[in-house]
Amino acid sequence: MKRLIEKGLMFGNLIRVDSPAWVARYNRALKLVAGRETALSEFHIDLAGYSPEIGDEIGDMDYLNPAGAHRQFILLTTEQKTAPLLNADLSVLRDLLQLFIRENESQLFSLTARDAVLGEMDDRVWQVSAPADLLQIGRIRISADTTGNHVAGADKLTALIERFRSEPDGWYDDVLIARMIAQAKETGDVIRNPIRLEAGDYEVPDFWTSQFGGVYVFRSPREPAMIFRDAELMASAHDRPDLSGVKLIALGDTNAIAMWLARNALAEPIVTAKGADGAAILRQKIDFILVDAATRLGIDTGDATRSALRRAAARMGEGLPPEIRGLSALLRYAEEGGAWPVIDSADPAYFYAIRAAATPARELVNQMLTELAPHDVRALFILNKPLFYAAYQGWDEAKKDYVANHLAREYQIDKQGTRDALFGAEPSMKEPPPIAGPWGKARRGGTLSGASAALGTGRTPRDQPIRGPWGG
């Protein structure tokens, strides 16, 4: 992992804590959260104030998230909003905490100037013991205060001031005035400098969780679904009455996933996606697949340029990855036109050739597609870092070098531009139109021009691969 850290691809943008004042404030918060203090004089923290160095020091890598059920955070500065969120067991937490900081930025800036802010993200589900419990996570409430309870103190002083103003004999109530003065010494002038943090209450329609081996929960599509990495867990949940109305799919059932994506208009072909340079994206995907194959087969890729990779591919023979044929046909179509290549959901190239459509579930669909097209290491790094880091540890050194250098050169320079080019601009929050699929209507059986119209009725045999998104 050293080369990733050196290139800023791992633990990048963490906030460095090295001043005695910050360390002291962090220790006050840590004492309240974990009953411990750190002896470190320098460490790094993420968006939620989690420090991998402190986790290692105290032997608890989940000290801000005990039992995965009560996510807490420590803010020393509003600049934490630019940091990554490590060890996130719920995919939406980073976006929601960033939103909370932005909505309260001026107040948090003032509060963190004097103390650490300690908060919690409450999903209002006390225990997640079965997959059905995940459906209860509908909203997350974020609340915070300083370790010295400045916000609560300010609320108390504000209430005293209102009482003083409203009571006819307030001017003669020495006890009330004394309480106001004592409270003001702690909180300051709340009239000129009001202190108030608005608790954030946020909706959570779609999310991924690391619980139960990894589950994607989709509620915003017309056909809600839970997609499990663990097929056995998915099978055991099938007969649960509290999961009725929710489609359960194993991640390994690629045909079922392809049909579900098509029925709910959740994906689109990269080649025809609006604003996408389909040919450039396909060429890069082919490069990633060839690098993986060459390193596995022990074939030298030289300087790993595109021409060197093509020479390596010529020496692969039967070891040439099966994804290459379909992606090459699509690349020829994108560059030269002609007839649509015929590729169905059983083809290894299928999930490399689509991306999420512009719907509210776009980010989560794209994250799921990285698991179905794992050799696209750029998308894997951008959208699914835990899986990227896990996969990276098993790669050959040559592949590690190639991927690290490529990401440092191509992605780090313009992160947002790369994301927009690959996945499109931010989607509209409007409901998708009621159409049969992202590639239009088609006949059932025979040669299809896109996803079958029968997909919407569920009449397509389970073991029959669907044609699309390019038809034939």
What secondary-structure arrangement, pairings included, does this model have?
Blueprint: H1 2-6, E1 15-17, H2 20-34, E2 43-45, H3 52-58, E3 71-75, H4 93-103, H5 105-112, E4 117-122, E5 139-146, H6 150-166, H7 174-187, E6 200-203, E7 207-209, E8 215-218, E9 225-228, H8 231-237, E10 247-250, H9 254-263, E11 267-269, H10 278-297, H11 306-314, H12 323-336, E12 354-356, H13 362-372, H14 377-383, H15 385-392, H16 397-411, H17 415-423
Parallel strand pairs: 9-10
Antiparallel strand pairs: 1-2, 3-4, 4-5, 5-6, 7-8, 8-9, 11-12
Helix pairs in contact: 6-7, 10-11, 10-12, 10-16, 13-14, 14-15
Question: Approximately how much beta-strand content do the residues carry?
Answer: 5-15%
Name the shape in a single word: elongated
Judged by helices, strands and strand pairing, the structural class is alpha+beta
Mean pLDDT comes to 82
Radius of gyration from CA coordinates: 27 Å
Distance between the termini: 44 Å
The unreliable regions are: 189-194, 427-432, 434-462
| Most strands sheet | 4 strands, antiparallel
Strand line-up of the largest beta sheet: 3-4-5-6
> What share of the residues lie within helices?
25-40%
Region (Disordered): 425-472
InterPro entries: DUF6638 (IPR046578)
Biased composition (Low complexity): 445-459
